[in-house]
Design goal:
By secondary structure, this protein is of the alpha+beta class. It has two domains: 135 residues, Copper Amine Oxidase, Chain A, domain 1 (2-Layer Sandwich); 32 residues, no CATH class.
Length: 173
């Protein structure tokens, strides 16, 4: 009975920690630092100072992943995966996008951990989607300003004037 109580007490705590990951939104992309990920899930991070290579290991399953800053690929359990955004470093701390983390999580995390992660990503993605929905409206008009007014025809190079280029481009559209 005592063991069951402890299990029921600690089980929700792990889920809450993962659900409260400190996501950051940068230009519409959702990021989280790997350090925060290791605090929410049983993941160890190995990284040598000044190096771009990061090794992750799940403490329970011993599954591994190798990431390289700036690379649009990662290796998880020997499987080569393409990710939507490469791992990047911000203020010396590696961070991973939600899209790349989804790819990585499928090969590194348990199903329960993955469900918790998905819940966290969906919650923050919903907040981001609400903020950028205006950018997804269809474009109805494009305005081109062919000149600077008066006798100014804009920049010239090789006998070609900026005003002429913009007017021709507008005519094609």
């Amino acid at each position: 009975m005592h063991a069951l109580f402890l299990l029921l007490f600690f089980l929700p705590v792990a889920g809450r920690a993962a659900a409260d990951l400190p996501w950051k939104v940068v230009q519409g992309v959702v990021w989280v630092e790997l350090e925060a990920l290791s605090e929410a899930f049983p993941i160890k991070i190995w990284r040598q100072p000044g190096k771009k290579k990061v090794l992750l290991e799940h403490s329970v399953s011993k599954r591994t992943a190798l990431l390289l800053e700036g690379s649009p690929y990662l290796v998880a359990n020997g499987i080569f995966l393409a990710v939507p955004e490469p791992l990047e470093s911000h203020r010396g701390k590696p961070r991973i996008s939600s899209g790349a983390l989804r790819q990585l999580g499928r090969h590194l995390l348990s199903q329960r951990e993955m469900d918790t992660l998905e819940e966290s990503i969906e919650r923050v993605s919903g907040e981001v989607d609400a903020g950028v929905c205006m950018l997804q409206r269809p474009v109805e008009k494009v305005m081109l300003d062919p000149g600077h007014g008066g006798d100014d025809h804009g920049a010239k190079r090789g006998g070609i004037r900026e005003k002429d280029v913009v007017l021709r481009f507008g005519g094609i559209l």
